[in-house]
Structure formats: structure tokens, C-alpha cells
Amino acid sequence: MRMAPVATNPLDLIGNTPIVLLEGPSEAAGCEIWGKCEFLNPGASVKDRAALGIIRDAEERGALKPGGTVVEGTAGNTGIGIALVANALGYKTVIVMPDNQASEKYATLRALGAKLVLVKPTKFKDPNHFVHTSRRIAEERDGAVWANQFDNQANRRIHEATTAPEIWEQMEGRVDGFTCAVGTGGTLAGVGLGLKAKDNDIRIALTDPHGAALYEYYAHGELKSEGSSAAEGIGQGRITGNLEGAPIDTQFRISDEEGLHWVAELLREEGLCLGLSSGINVAGAIALGKQLKADGRDNPRVATILCDTGFRYLSTIYNREWLEAKGLPVFGWL
Fold this sequence. Notes:
Elements: E1 19-21, H1 23-29, E2 32-37, H2 47-60, E3 69-73, H3 77-89, E4 92-98, H4 103-111, E5 115-119, H5 130-140, E6 144-146, H6 154-170, E7 177-180, H7 186-198, E8 203-209, H8 214-220, E9 250-254, H9 256-270, H10 276-294, E10 301-306, H11 320-326
Parallel strand pairs: 2-10, 3-4, 3-6, 4-5, 7-8, 7-10, 8-9
Antiparallel strand pairs: 1-2
Keywords: Pyridoxal phosphate
Pfam families: PALP
Cofactor: pyridoxal 5'-phosphate
């Protein structure tokens, strides 16, 4: 058994997550599907990386001073990451969220000492959208900085500098494809840029849920959405600052039902308890693997992101009543 690395600073626990070969998805795709275990970050999600990158960038620019406050609008996971990093560095945190997210996220943020502001879910063009509300709070508060995770490219830069080289090294330079869904675009753009710098033939794919507009944009050049998704933290209707210039080669649209199928399979067969965004990512990775095979790649190897822990969604996707109310399939054991 390999010894775990030793950290001399709690923030060093962010990143350097394991990558695991997923047997069921690999069998379904007819090639190797690998999952980067971002749920093993201290805040239990991939968003810890963005939180660290954004806060360190604000410090380096002189925008964030000792004792200052970090303000952000988020579906939850970035807020949790920011609260943890801010606590470790002596900053305060104000998090703005729509009031329709999993209750576990609200409870976690309050437990971490963040000030939580809840707003009604609305379209981005509405000035009361959680992103615009968080910007106003930051502007009105002395000593505060706005994290601006959607358009702040410090988000994607940390994935380019850390997540991409980790995947490359862990897969011994044998990577044929990478895919994940988009919330801010930081993970897909940053990993895509980092992997393309290693090998431009690596195929980078967007995996989009229903209700988001990016699938149509990358397929046909038009921001257009159809349907809806219950997945939290993914799905985007605009080209964010992090997506500008992202090297996206192809795109897939994945339903909640298909994503939940893989959430169930990975829990029942492989012991991984994950959120819906991870299931959607895995379904997209399978589609990418099949596409690469059809295009003549011999035993392609595809990586994706296992975004966060399923324990954050006990009141939603692991709850029979919630699933039934949404018209979604219920896991047999519930």
C-alpha cells in the first residue's frame, strides 16, 4: 500500500486527488473511462480548486487585504470551498445562493461560519440573480472582494496549472479525451487548455445537461436551450469569461435520467456515492469514448470529473419523495 502524501499546510490538501478506472462505464463504452476523484478535496468538491485559485489571485493583486471579506454567488460548492479557504487564511465570507438548492449545502455553509444570503432563482438578466446580488454586496462592503467565479479566469488557470497536469501524469501521458459539464466553465476550459498543451490531439468535449444552452452553441453556433435539469451547479446559458477561447472539439447532451442511471450504477457496483453532475459527466465520457472508437482510436482512454459527494444530496437525488416530485426514476433501494 502506498503511503498518503504529507501536508504541512491544510490548503495543500486541495488538489492532487486520485484518479480511478471506472469498470462499469468502461465496459459500456468499450474503452477505458477514468474518474478524477474531486469529491476527495477538503470541501468535498472540485470547486475547492477554484476557491483557492481565486483567493490567491486576489491576494497577489492586492485586492484582498488581511481581515477582508470574500463575497460570491454560487450554487453551493464554490461557496463551501471559499469558506474553507477563507477560514484558513483569516478572511470572512458572504455567500449568495438561490433558495432552491439542496438543504445540505445551506447547513454546511452555516456550519463553516459563512454569512448566507438566499435569493429567489431567476434568469441571469434579472438584476436580482444571485450573481448580480453578490457583486452588489461586495461593492457595498468595505474590505470585500467579489470572487466572480464565472468570469474570473483565475478559476480556469488553477485547473490548467493543477488538474490538467495531474490527469496527464496519472494516466502516464496516455489520454485520448476529456469531458465534463459546465457551470462556470473553469474546469472544462482549464483542463482542456492544459491537456492540449501536452497533446493537441486530445479531444475535449462539453457534456451539457438539458436546460443549458451550450450544447447548441458549440454544435450550431446559437445559444439555445431546451428541456430542464435538476442537476445543481452545472448548466449555462452564456459564454462566461472562463469559456472564452476554450478548446472544445465536440459536445454531448445528457439527460438527468441517464445521469442518474450512472449515479446508481457507480454506487451499487463500485461503491462511489456521487452527485448528479458526476453521473452526467460519466455518461458524457462514455459517449466520448464511443465517438473516439468510431473514429478509429484504438482502445481510447477518456477522463472526466467526479465533481462532488452524494452526501451533499441526501434530501434530493437520494430521497424518494423528491425524485417522485420531479418525475425522475427512483433508485430501487429507496
